[in-house]
Amino acid sequence: MHFNSNIKFLRKRLGRTQDDIAAALNMKRSTLSGYENNVAQPGIEALIVFSKYFGISIDTLVKIDLAVLPESQLRQLERGYDVYIKGTHLRILATTVGADNEENIELVSEKAKAGYKSGFADPEYISILPTFRLPFLSKQKKYRTFQVKGDSMLPIPDGSWVTGVFIQDWSTIRDRDACIILTTEEGVVFKVVENRIKTDGKLILHSLNLLYEPYDMPVADIREVWQFVNYISSEVPENPVAHTLHLAKTVKQMREDIKAIQTKMNI
């Protein structure tokens, strides 16, 4: 139970004294001090009062150690986003910050993906990843960049660096959103998503390359979701019009070849 440390942490984060909070909550300072020092336990009425004052659910105040959350998640809570209110679980994200206390964007290369699969929640592992910044991205959100492999998401080239914003509440994922998804079996995958969590407890993952069939991903097999923001590549993407024309020519040639075979066989 983290209630005592959480209310002390939130009070200091607001720059308030015990006298300030006690006055605002219409309680004695000694009572508040007892809660913070864990020598007194709050009743349900007191829990409701603290929850309303800080704008955070009772579940979060009691179950989550707020002091270990990254700044991006604390800011989400302060803006009124509390996943316990939505009936989901709070995913504590390991992250890194620079000397200015602003969050970095960690880079997960193709070689690092195997380690990321098991070390994604380990602060020590995340701390050794290379980092950078993109100044045009919001400081209020958490971003991470992954290197993609293969041709399943063409025209995004093989080897591109894809940046995503961390999605805490998966129910907010929209159909046709492109996402980087960390799974228990496949590791990191980059796909276009159909959200069937509410109805079937799964996401349906599609490739941009139509040669690849869509497949189901149960929520139980998902560890993280990062919504696509942008990508960086040293290659110029293939012209989709030229690609379509090439396919059309190929189909036309196949039809002509089949017709010629049928003629020879007197079909």
Describe this structure in words.
This protein is α+β, with helices and mostly antiparallel strands and 267 residues long. It folds into 3 domains: 3-68, lambda repressor-like DNA-binding domains (434 Repressor (Amino-terminal Domain), Orthogonal Bundle); 105-232, Umud Fragment, subunit A (Ribbon); 239-267. It has 10 helices and 9 strands. Strand 5 and strand 6 form a beta hairpin. The chain starts with a helix and ends with a helix.
Strand order of the largest sheet: 2-1-3-4-9-5-6-7-8
Number of domains: 3
Specify the overall morphology: elongated
Quaternary organization:
single chain
List low-confidence stretches.
Answer: none
- Give the total of beta strands: 9
Strand content of the residues, in percent?
A: 15-25%
Total of helices: 10
Helix content: 25-40%
- Helix vs. strand class: alpha+beta
CATH topology of the largest domain: Umud Fragment, subunit A
Biggest sheet descriptor: 9 strands, mixed
Q: Quick one: CATH superfamily of the largest domain?
A: Umud Fragment, subunit A
Structure described in brief:
The chain is of the alpha+beta class and 267 residues long. It has helices spanning 3-13, 18-24, 29-36, 44-54, 58-63, 71-78, 113-119, 123-127, 197-200, 240-264, and strands at residues 105-108, 131-132, 143-147, 161-166, 177-183, 187-196, 202-206, 215-218, 222-232.
